[in-house]
Design goal:
alpha/beta, TIM Barrel, 9 helices
């Protein structure tokens, strides 16, 4: 969120001028979840999710869980999902056993609150699937955010009733594995995202990402699937609207 502090209104205006109707800003810890809610309260097109990213789970307490639940109960109009939660075995900012424990616990809270989940996975496919499968029914479904896995993993996630979210990485020429996934999964199971401020699509690679850039992601998906961009926009927007009850 700090990446947009100076020009947040301009960022939102650029998106809405380009027919982007909804923006979801993500919580990665208790404080950023509160800030996400504040932004959603102030800016009409914006909604928030709450949750604690796997990088931030060390030291997470019972009172933090209570605070997240209370945040949702007090701001149901703004909070549309629970996340970003999950596992990250690449950078290991948090110890893996702690990551797994808090992923399970946050899943349980999301289901209790009847919120769709936003799942982060990096090099942790086996454990991510194991935990999601053990949880069983996800009453409001969810999305595998910033998808970077292979076709088999995508199929497993779809079989759990979840969506696959495609980031700007799909515009990179060397993202051949993701290209294959996009070609093979139905639009009915697909979302698109920025993962801002990171992972800007070509031709903005290396620069700050922002919501309007999903247009480039959608255009690449359309090219890969040999369909019109309008069809990609219609399906992915409809999927997001249903998943997050926008």
């Amino acid at each position: 969120m700090d990446a947009y502090y100076e020009d947040l209104k301009d960022v939102i205006d650029r998106a809405t001028r380009n027919k982007i109707k909804h923006i979801i800003t993500i919580g990665i810890d208790v404080l950023s979840s509160k800030n996400a809610v504040k932004i959603a309260q102030k800016h009409h097109p914006v909604f928030a999710t709450i949750g604690v990213h796997p990088h931030e789970v060390d030291g997470l307490t019972d009172s933090d869980y209570t605070e997240l639940a209370t945040l949702y109960e007090n701001h149901k109009k703004q909070v549309v999902g629970f996340g970003e939660i999950g596992l990250d075995y690449v950078k290991l900012h948090s110890e893996p056993t702690q990551q797994r424990y808090h992923f399970k616990r946050q899943l349980e809270l999301a289901c209790e609150l009847q919120l769709p989940i936003i799942v982060h996975n990096r090099e942790a496919e086996a454990d991510t699937l194991k935990i999601l499968q053990a949880q069983g029914n996800l009453p409001r479904g969810g999305v595998m955010h910033c998808f970077s896995g292979d076709q088999q993993f995508a199929t497993e996630i779809i079989n759990l009733g979840m969506m696959i979210s495609i980031p700007g990485i799909v515009t990179f020429k060397n993202a051949t594995k993701l290209h294959d996934v996009v070609k093979n999964i139905p639009l009915e199971h697909m979302l698109i995202e920025t993962d801002g401020p990171f992972l800007s699509p070509h031709p903005f690679r290396g620069k700050r990402n922002e919501p309007v850039n999903v247009l480039f992601t959608a255009a690449t998906i359309a090219k890969l699937k040999n369909i019109d961009i309008e069809e990609v926009a219609q399906h992915t927007s409809s999927n997001a609207t249903k998943l997050f009850n926008l």
